[in-house]
## 1
Amino acid sequence: MHLRVEYRLGPEQRFLANLDTMHLMERALRRADLPYALSAGFNPHIRLSMGTVLPVGLWGEREYFDLELNQEMELKDFAVRLNDALPPSVRVDQVVEVTSHTPSLMKVVNAASYSLVLGISLLQLDALAQEFMDRPSLWVKSRGKKKDLDKDLRSGIYKVETKEQYQGSILTIWVAIGEPLNVRYDELLAALAVSGLEQNSLLDIYRSGNFIYQDTVFTSPLEKVK
Amino acid sequence: MKDRLFREILPRVAKPARYTGGEYNILQKDWDQARARMVLAFPDVYEVGMSHVGSKILYGLVNEKSPHLIERTYAPWPDMEELMRSQGLPLYALESFRPVRDFDVVGFSLLYELSISNVLNMLNLAGIPIWSRERMKEQYPLIIAGGPVVFNPEPFADFFDAFIIGDGEEALLEVLDLVDRSREWSKGERLAALAALEGVYVPCLYQVSYREDGTLEKMEPLRSELPDRVRKRVVIDLENTYFPERPLVPNLEIIHDRAVLEVMRGCQRGCRFCHAGMVYRPVRERSPELLKKQAEEQLHHTGYEEISLTSLSTLDYSAVAPLVKDLVKGFGPRGVGVSLPSLRVDAFSIELANEVQKVRKTTLTLAPEAGTQRLRDVINKNVDEEQLFKAVEAAFLSGWLSVKLYFMYGLPSETEEDLLAILELVQKVKAIGDRCARRPVEIRTSLACFVPKAHTPFQWRAQDNVEQLESKRRRLNVQRRRGIKLSFHDSRLSYLEGVIARGDRRLSQGIYRAWEKGCKFDGWSEHFHYETWIEAMAEAGLEMDFYTRERSYAEILPWDFIDIGVGKDYLMEENEKATYGETTGDCRWEGCGDCGICPTLGVNLDIKGADRCI
């Protein structure tokens, strides 16, 4: 049986590297004594594959992994037992059954949304977002593999949303990840700084979702699974 | 404080998960409900400190089995330290994020002599005066230490209020009870009461005087009711001693990232250079039934993928073979592996290693320690060439392709021949490998500098100085054949370790100056500055060679007042036997060697698989 799991990695765990998160999940699966499938060979490991890498320093509202079980079980039961074995800051929210042919998360997820909690009014934020989206190009220094090369993020910025919240506002931006253009959150912050976002007004930043982006539509990885 | 830490500081440091706490199985007791509040301070980075078994025991013991509370803190890496200092953030505990200064007791684990610079740095980061005499008036936490290094506590005597000598399980709870009881007492009264506990040494209550030649004249207690000698604490019944079933599961990868079973404590092989083998006598084992239950519980509560059988010499555990087989059978199908940290040089070891390593044949590690039979007899490493060759042959035939060999150089009575014999031995092992294995084998040879340690038969012997060690290193490197990798421990680091290992109270001035000049993380080669240490010691008027010289039997040694239960006459006899190349057998199989541990402490060897012992 193949599962796709959506989980929340809370702010307390924002400094975990991707491998650390994977170990955390594997250990929770063992503690819960769930019927995880093992790979063949002399050094067996749990058949678990993580979704796109959550950058160190960010927490994740909707993150994903795929897992193979060696026997059938109720999805709800799976979630309850895994949650009992996870630290309180990590929580499984949804589980769906997929097939062995479902393309892997790494292959299909090509967009993500980053949410910035800001200590500025919605009015100020709207003006900033407007200015940002109106810019014809968004040149920044690349922070990733091709370090310090100039890179234009513009074609990888899909949409923004703003909303008010207690004593401030939230800016959510949907961006391209993976190939051909990968918009890193630190590059995004650099581009927003040009539009007037001040470092000290940024109260929190997290990844609020991962998506399959196709023909201008964002789909959750839990939906497109066949 | 936590909010500021997460927002402003941690995003700017390497490996921030070192500083966040929040591990699975973390125990955070209610501050106001707890009696005594202690922070366990480990003077090295998180990944090292979290791997320490002793700390796991004390953490679980105090939090689960007593009304007291214990939290943790580790040495921040220099990038984090710099930010903490510039942002005015004091050293804090990972459970409550409270400043270390708010606790009643700060207890350091000292596993390595040179971690003392980190101790001073951590005290300073916590806003606590470094010298114990400066902590007499104001309310500061009680600063204590334990661990293998404090069997010679004297070089650190002026920094600590008290030391716990030996097994810490029982003594620590007594110390915490006392701390809780003595809140209204003066510091002097409190220290006097601590000194009355067995296994607790309070240095400021002992006075030391020196002769003109710099050696010790006498050391005596300032009060008549105090003992002349402080006897180590020993847990007699290991079977009924606490061991954690819910250890912390770290969020980032640590050095020993696995579940751990302590199968026994102590080792009586009697290698004459070995500190742990002398100070942790006698051998006490746990039963295989208990260990299997502990393994089950620990794996259930941690979800670890590997379980390691640990002790000073796990292959000497009397029930090791059936235990390993049962664990492999029980946990293998769940994808959990079993590992052995160290192997003996014999075919039995290889057989057992094959049992656990049905998996990848990674590197096999064996420790012949010396190149010739003569020198192996001197150090009482009871291994002969034939055993070694049989062991490696068995290993290569069963698929291993890489062997790591451990040797020491700078050993007592070592000659040119002994040194070159190391290379010959390695060459022979390589030849066996190339004959038996399916591919050319890799032999990695690690050479450690011999450091004479307190309470061992070699405590009177001279240690090679840096020039001697360097010249031996060059000699070996020149003679080395192709295809053999030699890696040498840093001779300067080993020399300094030797100075402190057999040091006295006066060394604290040199250590303090070295810290003032910026020394920290000395065990990490990228942070070790030998020149600074030389300057610091010279400024403090200390001659390092004085501490590494040969000593006479008549000399009063700075650590003589610590009673480890093994007689000084036994150590002398062993040292004499070394001179004549005479060996001493393991008392479990070859009869009592009269080391004195059993009658002195009123204990017996506790061997569970009795058939393997006379």
## 2
Amino acid sequence: MRPNVLIVDDDQTFLRLIQKDLEGFSESFNVLIAESGKSALDLLKKAYVSFVVSDLRMPGMDGFELLSNILKKFPDIPVYMMTSYDKPKTKDVVVKSGAAGYLKKPFTAIELFGEITKTLNKKAEGGSLHSVTLETFLQLIEMEQQTSTLRIVDKKEDRGGVLFFRNGELMNARVGDKQGKDAAYEILSWSNVSVSIEHDCVFQEKIIQGDLQAILLDAMRVKDELAEEIEMEEASVNGEILLDSPLTKANPESSGVKPEPAARDISSKKPETTAKVRPAKKEVELSKLSPIDTIRMKIKNSIGRRDGVLDIYPDQSWDALIDQTSNIGNIFNCGRLNVLYVNREKNEQFIIVPGEETTAISISSDSPWDRIIEALG
Amino acid sequence: MKDIFKDVMGLEGVHGLLVVSNEGSVMLSKFSPDFKGEAEKLSQINWEPFTIEMGNIKDAELVYDRARFYIKKSETGFLIVIIGDNAPISMVRLNCEVLLPLLTKIQPASKRIGKILRKKLF
């Protein structure tokens, strides 16, 4: 995902010219334009912007007001101010107001490009990581008590967010104009991300209360609930009948809700969250299925559609590894080997299920393989 | 050297930790007191075929009825952590990730003995 640079000016001719001039650098960043401070703020809520250049004098919301709004709502975005009304102290005042830099009009596209790349490089001074497990990485930041601003890009959905750490503590998070815990939960629900690291944090005050471990656990819960909701909606759209709630199944009387008859008209009714269950004869049905179908059903039942499974197939090439690891397990009195997760070089990941016929499950890098193992183990 | 494993061994449910060289020799082993009995069986294992099979695997997790093995490959060999059901697996993974670079400092017993002999002789 290329960074977005937002240029704000009420002078439409200038916007058109600078946009055209910057087209030559389109491999480095995208250019977004706004003709007023208000429309710039609206755009900042929707798009993941990495850099803002704004004119100082604009009708309505001027450059200073826009800067003040950005510092409040999007504190991690560097803002450069530009003006043709250059006076001796203008630069000092602008920088003291919190701007990252100052450009005197007229300037060339190359000059602007230089400032943009200098600033964007600083934002990734600590390096970039691709396809990382965010949870593990954040725990490292906490453990090493690092102060940093992490810019996270969700490669799947083309969206971005920011996590702010000071001395290993999660101070705040931002997605669009949303900040705090909700923003953190949203970012932590992304699976396939890239992270760029800046060794700085604008937040002195801790906005997000609670320790990271608890937040990570909560985020996992929110993520699961969201996935479940989506699955429910999909099931509802497909007209799938989901009966026998776990609650009513466990103790229908105590819940005070009588189970509904199975053959009722549900065409116009969306299933309740608590009414999600699989058929009671699951075990019997499973025994009739092939090993691969059984595995597929177990994964679907416990994880849903977002399982990251690419393929399931019989594969005897793992048998030698299974033999070796089973022997080692026997010697250590660990019992039967139920399932293996292997991450090969080149990031090929598999879950292997031993049996009469060894089954290999090829999975994507964002697969919740931990949960698959739990379901199969 | 064993102190570098203190954090992993200190985690709840971690039974033991081994470092096996790429050639299949045990370079280091450490077990919790409740797993000492099983640890005595270590010499019964021929690790060489295991390391051959694990050749192109970066990391792996083996789930048994009563335990789980977390295996991570380093330049030197394989770090194997034996854990119980109640172990915080994500913390185990994280700690292993952290100590992995330190594993290069461990040398096979044969090399260590060689060094000692050289020191004594010259």
